[in-house]
Design a protein that fits this description.
Layout (H helix, E strand, L loop, with lengths): L11 H13 L3 E3 L3 E3 L2 E3 L1 E4 L6 E6 L4 H11 L5 E7 H4 L4 H7 L2 E5 L5 E5 L9 H14 L2
Length: 142
């Protein structure tokens, strides 16, 4: 029996697996892109028990662009990740991500996720930005 491998060609294909992964980790998630400055956060989550927030930037291949966006998201989220397909994650400079406290989520060919690099708690987070998104999730999801 041959196992069919998923071909991930669009960021939208990463959304459901990463959102489900975040939910399994205890986060309620806001899936529609949230505007933040000139960017849109692909996925924002809130852990009701801890109050921690996560932001995830999805990319198919351009991890450097994802890092640029993720650095901005540290202003509004406790933990920030980029998510990439497994085949593209191998070129990521994880030392560069770790230097900035950005985590890496890898989406495998069978659309499962794993944390390749844990995110550090952001020291840049600004409560007024973070609180605005957290309140949105509480009012809509929890």
């Amino acid at each position: 029996m041959q196992v069919r491998k998923a071909t991930i060609k669009r960021e939208a294909q990463l959304l459901d697996p990463v959102a489900n992964y975040a939910r399994r980790k205890g986060f309620s998630v806001q899936v529609p892109e949230l505007p933040f400055f000139e960017y849109r956060i692909d996925l924002f989550g809130l852990s009701k028990p801890t109050g921690d927030t996560i932001a995830v930037e999805l990319k198919i291949k351009n991890w450097r662009r994802a890092l640029q966006q993720a650095l901005i998201y540290q202003l509004c989220s406790d933990f920030v990740f980029i998510a990439l397909p497994e085949g593209k994650a191998g070129v990521v400079n994880t030392a560069e991500l770790a230097k900035h406290g950005i985590g890496l989520i890898v989406v495998t060919w069978d659309l499962r996720c794993r944390t390749e690099l844990a995110a550090a708690r952001s020291s840049e987070v600004r409560d007024h930005y973070r609180q605005e998104f957290a309140e949105l999730l509480v009012s809509v999801r929890l």
